[in-house]
Every structure is written in C-alpha cells, then in structure tokens.
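Hello,

Our lab assistant flagged a job as stuck in the queue for most of the afternoon. It eventually completed. Since we weren't sure the result was trustworthy after the delay, we are filing this so someone can double-check. Below is the sequence as submitted and the structure that was eventually returned. Let us know if re-running is recommended.
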Amino acid sequence: MSDEKNFSDNLDDKTDKAKEGAKKAGDKAGEFAQGAKEKAKDFAEEAKETASEFTESAKETFGSGENKKVLAGILAILLGSLGVHKFILGYNKEGIILLVTTLVLGTVTCGFGAGLTYLVGLVEGIIYLTKSDEDFYNTYQVGKKPWF
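-- returned structure --
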C-alpha cells in the first residue's frame, strides 16, 4: 500500500507542477497578448493620424489652388520651349535643361531645336490638362515625375 501511496503522491506532485507550469505559460501568453494589443492600438492610432494629415493636406491643396495643373498646362502650351512650366512645378533642373536646349539648339539649328523643345512643352501641356486634379497632383506634385 505504501507503494501505491508514494505513486499517488508523486502523481499529485507532478500534476501540481504541470498545473503551475501551465498557469505560468498562460500568464506569459496573456502578457504577450496584452503587449501586442497595445502595440496594435498605437499603430492604428498612428495610421489614423497619418491618413488624417494626408487627407487634410490634400483638401487644402485642392481647395487653395496649390494644385498647379491649369497654370502649368497653359504655360507648357504657350512657353513650353522655355521650360516655364517646369519651374512652376518646382523642377528647376528640367526647366534649365529645356531653356538651355532651346537657346543653344535654337541658335545652332536656326530654330529647329527650339521647335523640338516646343513640341515637348506642347505634349506635356496637353497631358497636364487632360489629367484629373488628383492624378496630376499625385503624379507631378507628390510623385515628382519630371517628364511626361
């Protein structure tokens, strides 16, 4: 009978240890889940804040005339060979390239080079004016796509 009692006591001890281990593991998993929940909540708040800032900025831009689509499109058609539309959009390097190309090639080729740069401006002006406000803003003002 004492063997049975020892076996029963050992079994009870092991069961108690297993219960304690399971409880510790459960507590640890609960702490981990709580940490993950807090991190997810922080991330969600940050994402909402960023989206709100972007939306607010886009509304201000479209409402305040900062979207330079019409101005850049008309200047590209009228003065495209001088690169004025590039300067309006903030593409100074590209504007200088068009201006210098027009002046140098226009002088060397008796105006033929200037005609080619005018065609570039004309095509860009048409592209600018046919895009929606959102597409233009995302492509040329946010995305900074300098050519076509």
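-- support follow-up --
The delay was a queue issue, not a problem with the job. The result is valid. The first helix runs from residue 2 to 64. Residues 81 and 118 are 4 Å apart (CA to CA).
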